[in-house]
Structure formats: C-alpha cells, structure tokens
Amino acid sequence: MTLPAWTREPLVHFLALGALLYVALTWGGSPPDPSSRVINVDKAQQAQLALGFERVMGRAPTDAELDERIARYVREEVLYREALRLGLDQDDAVVRQRMVAKMDMTASAAAELVEPDEATLRAYLEANRARYAGTRVVSFAQRLYPSEAAARAGIVSGADAGTPTSLPPAMTDAPMHEVEARFGKQFADGLAGLKPSASWQGPIPSGFGWHIVRLTAQAEAAADFNTLRLRLANDWRAEQIARAQDRAYAILKSAYRVDIAR
After folding, report:
1. pLDDT digit string, tens, across residues 141-160
2. To 5 degrees, how large is the angle CA 166–CA 169–CA 172?
3. Closest Cα to residue 204, out of 214, 216, 191, 192?
4. How far apart, in whole angstroms, are the C-alpha atoms of residue 191 and residue 139?
5. For the chain, how long is the longest CA-to-CA vector?
6. DSSP the chain
C-alpha cells in the first residue's frame, strides 16, 4: 500500500505529535493546575544560575550565556512538572532512592553543622574506649637465618649471631605498624601471636628469611585525645546524624498504618 505524499511531510508529523501531546495533557493524568503553569525566574533564581555557571567555568556568564542558562532552566522545569503530573516518577527505583536520600539529608541538616566541644568529645571517647584502643607496642630481639631448619638450630644453640642483616637486632616500645614497615606483615603477624618470654621463640618467616624472636614486652599505648580529636568529632557527628534521621523517620512513620501480609 502506497501512502499519500502529504503523509510524509514534516509539518504533518509535527501536528500529529502535537495532537498526541494534547490528548495526554488533557485526558491523561490529573487536570492541569493553573498555578503550576507559572514559572517564575526571579532575580534570586537568575543569580543561582549565574553562580552555577561561574563555578564550572571560573568566570561570570555573559548576558547571552545567562539567557541560554535561563532557557535551559525553563525547559527543564516545564518537562519536570509535566513528568510529575503524568506520574512518570512513580515506580522508578532511581527517583525513589534520590527522594529518600533527600528526606534523610533534610532530617540531618542541623546535626551536620554542630561542632562538639571538648567535654562532649572526651565523654564520647570514654563511652567508646574500645573503638579507640591505643596502638600496640612491643619490645623484642631477633635473629635472622636463611632457612627454617637453621632458625630452629639457632633456638637450640641459644641464638648465635645468625645471618648478617641491616634489620635492627632489637626494637624497644615499637608500634606494630613500625614493626610491619621494617620487617613486613608476615613477620608482624607472627610476632603478634607470641607472648612475652625470656626464651627465644619461632621461627617466624618474613620476606628476608626465618627469624627467632625473644619478645620481652608488649602493651597497649594509651589513646591520645589530641591525636584522636578530628576522628572523634567526625564519628560523633555521624552518630548524631544517624540519630536525627531515625527520630525524623519515627515521627513520620507514626502517621502511617503499615499492613504486612504474612
């Protein structure tokens, strides 16, 4: 079947699309609200658009560039309002999550700006002491051998000089992160599994070879408040934000009845 030539005219396509849009706007969704048909681009909104341009471009927009931004804003606003009126936001997981996130942000906005004083932070540290346990420090001597068998023989012989190495023969009150930095994680993990003793223990493997160790002391260094202050403030604020969100949700949920089919 051959269609008439007039059906291929762009103007006909445009008019047909307009008719479909008219039907959607008048029969689909809810009737238009006259107040929603007003898009007010006041001076404050124009200033926000200009500021957004300046943040991206590093300079103020020209009059033509600002006009282009305003035109883009109006286009987005028209399409956004019509999408809402036609219910296009419904059953959209992405839109749903963004709106939930914005509600949480609204509830927590005040908590994000609070600056806790020293007394508050010290009380928070005391209440969460286990979370901020100090760094473990150790004191030990070590000998290095080329093989596990040689290291075991070293324990029997009372630890001779072992293999010459640039590694320190002993460390006193050394934080475990420093031990790991010098000897490697494998050695640090093996050392952490030992208990202080006057005897030589091991062997402990590392990237350098096999070690025997005399662990003379280990302890937890006390957490320093000044060192922890920034972390404490961030953790305290995060906790306050979570509580604010939970409180706001509890208030909102109280207005609903939730029926869960079992």
Report:
1. 999 999 999 999 988 887 77
2. 125
3. 191
4. 11
5. 106
6. -PPPGGGG-HHHHHHHHHHHHHHHHHHSSSPPPGGGG-----HHHHHHHHHHHHHHHSSPPPHHHHHHHHHHHHHHHHHHHHHHHTTTTTT-HHHHHHHHHHHHHHHHHHHHT----HHHHHHHHHHTGGGGPPPEEEEEEEEEESSHHHHHHHHHTT----S--SS-SEEEEEEHHHHHHHH-HHHHHHHHT----SS-EEEEE-SS-EEEEEEEEEEEPPPPHHHHHHHHHHHHHHHHHHHHHHHHHHHHHTT-------
Handedness of CA 181, 187, 192, 197 (dihedral sign): negative
Closest CA to 226 of 72, 115, 122: 122
Cβ-contact 137, 219 below 8 angstroms: yes
Global pTM reads: 0.45
Fold of 135-220: Chitinase A; domain 3 (3.10.50)
Write the pLDDT tens digit of every residue in 186-219.
999 999 899 999 999 999 999 999 999 999 999 8
Structure tokens at 169: 């023969």
**Tokens 């479909």 -> residue:** 20
185: tokens are 């994680």
